[in-house]
Amino acid sequence: MFDAVLVRPLINAMLLLYKFLGQETIVAVTMITLLLRLATTPLQLKQQKGVRRQQELKPKLDELQKKYKDDKNQYAQEQMKLYREAGINPVAGCLPTLIQLPLMIGLYQAIIRVLAGTPLQLLALPKDIYRWIPSLSTLVPLKSQFLWLDLAIPDPLFILPVLVVISAWYYQKLLTPPATDAQAAAMNKQMMLMMPLMTGFFTLTYASGLGVYFLITNLVGVLQYYLFRSHFAPATAAPSGKSQESPTRPAKKAPTKS
Fold first, then answer.
1. Residues spanned by the domain of 99
2. Which of 64, 113, 144, 188 is spaced 20 to 30 A from 33 at the CA atom?
3. pTM of the entire structure?
4. In Å, how far are 20, 49, 187, 198, 219 from 191, measured between CA atoms?
5. So what's the pLDDT on residue 164?
6. How far, in Å, CA of 201 to CA of 194, rounded?
7. Segment 184-208, tens digit of pLDDT
8. How many structural domains comprise the chain?
């Protein structure tokens, strides 16, 4: 089921891109990565908007936590009520991650199969190619070399994993909201280290084509952040008890006649 829904479509899409874009595997991998990133962009933007809204609600959540510190059930109910009033779905923040994980696994499987680094993989590849698309089977095996990289195996010089870790760290840094307490700051620091190191480990262990996917995804994410940063800036509320209109000048007293 996973192969039919995700892996095989990705394999055939890569073959088509490879055929019409100069028969360069790196170009096909780059284009399929950009297409996947474009498809998940609305979810990414919605996630960041939700993070900003939750950040703006932090003072009210702190008040609720103090008020219901002895009643966790009541606090949870009031918290969900506050989220509903603000139009926030806490579960929606996990959706991009849940979607990106199968995409990453599917793309990795597609890269390994389409590059066919072993004779057995080369023999098994035709069953994944759509027969109703002419001349795709004549393209295999694909050219896997790009600069010093063989996209079917890990980078022997460790340059790609280093680039992935640096780009992932910077992207994570941009997306991490400012911490409001010491506990949140410690958690943010852990995430900024764990996520880049995890993607770096995958790049170091698996095919370089997957590392190319990570690197391009991070770079496009950084670009999207700077393009949409102003859209997600938290709204500045006016101080309580004060009007947002410009203050009126006090009326001058009429001069008294002597």
1. 2-229
2. 188
3. 0.67
4. 40, 19, 6, 10, 19
5. 92
6. 10
7. 677 777 777 888 888 889 888 888 8
8. 1
Please indicate, yes or no, if residue 24 is contained in any of the structural domains: yes
Per residue, the 3-state secondary structure of the chain, as one string, reads CHHHHHHHHHHHHHHHHHHHCCCCHHHHHHHHHHHHHHHHHHHHHHHHHHHHHHHHCHHHHHHHHHHCCCCHHHHHHHHHHHHHHHCCCHHHHHHHHHHHHHHHHHHHHHHHHHHCCCHHHHHHHHHHCCCCCCCCHHHCCCCCEECCEECCCCCCCCHHHHHHHHHHHHHHHHHCCCCCCHHHHHHHHHHHHHHHHHHHHHHHHCCHHHHHHHHHHHHHHHHHHHHHCHHHCCCCCCCCCCCCCCCCCCCCCCCCCC
What tokens were used for 238?
């006016």
Cis previous bond, 161, omega within 30: no
C-beta of residue 225 within 8 angstroms of C-beta of residue 45: no
Q: How far is CA 108 from CA 167, 201, 225, 248, in A?
A: 20, 14, 26, 65
What residues have CB less than 8 Å from 58, skipping those under 6 apart?
Answer: 180
Amino acid at 95: L
Residue 243 in any domain: the answer is no
Distance CA 107, CA 104 (A): 5
> What token pair was written down for 127?
């069953």
Segments of the chain with pLDDT less than 70: 68, 71, 86-97, 117, 177-184, 230-258
Which residue matches tokens 């989220």? 83
Is 36 within the bounds of a domain?
A: yes
Answer yes or no: is 62 within a domain: yes
Residue environment code for 71-83, b if the CB has 16+ CB neighbours within 10 A, otherwise e: eeeebeebbeeeb
